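Q: Please design a sequence for this.
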């Protein structure tokens, strides 16, 4: 099946033009490809692997709440082709040139986080089963496929106990709308300088700190601790004023955030290895050291994670 030829036919049906010539913009870590034609973006998103129906439905939800995401103009859900709003080519990460620009941009991103948390719809629950399934990716693709190792005996007990701690931490938090992949590569800057979100089709209802830790402990870029702390305090004050956090101290909020980040980063390590071993994409391995550093940082910070720290340093690296 020639998907590019089918995409051209889709564009022709949408525009009424007989021979459109779309220009590829990018691919990503999924199987999606993006093309530009005229003033629209056309997405080749194979329905067997991509959540196209969710993308269309969530675009409507986010826009209804005033959260900037690309509008969907046309969709062929059966074959996996979309015509969506063109947000331009300027990524959030490209504007992080110095400490001043990072300060400005991350405060803007934090404001967007607060707005997402205000969405009152109910989505799939990011519950214990969901979390355990995610962190199994670390075992299957990092430990097994990448290192050729398996957990046995006492090591398996430590792993299971740690994951139980991470599950309990997530479920103990206020549950809000969660983008689930809120990082520098999924935020665009529009011509007027405002921010817009992409890659939102995995939205769920989950712990309040998940998107925040995705932003400040990004697998693709390192923030200085001072900026991290400022954004955490800014978000804590924002969530508190919204009534989302009740009777929680900043210290408790930071504990929530740290363990939530550890859960996310273990999954991310597995995904980076899966992209290599399953999909033949080796460009993501360069982000493993930073992502492991985040896990080390948290496991060294809290005595309750002491056994996992020893396990990781001795046998998981």
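A: Design:
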């Amino acid at each position: 099946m020639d998907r590019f030829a089918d995409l051209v036919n889709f564009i022709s049906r949408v525009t009424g033009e007989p021979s459109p010539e779309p220009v590829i913009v990018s691919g990503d870590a999924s199987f999606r490809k993006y093309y530009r034609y005229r003033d629209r973006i056309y997405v080749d998103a194979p329905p067997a692997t991509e959540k196209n129906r969710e993308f269309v439905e969530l675009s409507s939800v986010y826009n209804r709440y005033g959260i900037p995401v690309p509008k969907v103009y046309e969709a062929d859900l059966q074959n996996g082709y979309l015509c969506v709003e063109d947000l331009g080519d300027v990524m959030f990460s490209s504007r992080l040139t110095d400490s001043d620009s990072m300060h400005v941009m991350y405060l803007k991103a934090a404001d967007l986080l607060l707005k997402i948390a205000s969405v009152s719809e109910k989505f799939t629950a990011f519950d214990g089963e969901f979390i355990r399934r995610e962190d199994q990716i670390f075992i299957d693709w990092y430990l097994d496929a990448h290192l050729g190792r398996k957990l046995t005996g006492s090591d398996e007990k430590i792993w299971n106990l740690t994951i139980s701690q991470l599950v309990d931490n997530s479920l103990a938090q206020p549950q809000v709308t969660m983008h689930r992949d809120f990082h520098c590569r999924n935020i665009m800057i529009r011509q007027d300088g405002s921010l817009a979100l992409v890659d939102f089709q995995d939205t769920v209802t989950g712990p309040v700190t998940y998107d925040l830790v995705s932003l400040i402990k990004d697998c693709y870029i390192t923030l200085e601790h001072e900026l991290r702390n400022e954004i955490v305090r800014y978000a804590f004050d924002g969530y508190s004023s919204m009534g989302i956090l009740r009777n929680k101290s900043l210290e408790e909020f930071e504990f929530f955030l740290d363990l939530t980040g550890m859960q996310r980063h273990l999954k991310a390590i597995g995904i980076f290895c899966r992209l290599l071993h399953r999909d033949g994409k080796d460009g993501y391995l360069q982000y493993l050291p930073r992502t492991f550093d985040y896990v080390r940082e948290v496991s060294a910070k809290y005595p309750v994670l002491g056994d996992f720290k020893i396990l990781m340093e001795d046998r998981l690296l």
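Q: Thanks. Anything notable?
A: The first strand starts at residue 23 and ends at 27. The chain has a mean pLDDT of 95.
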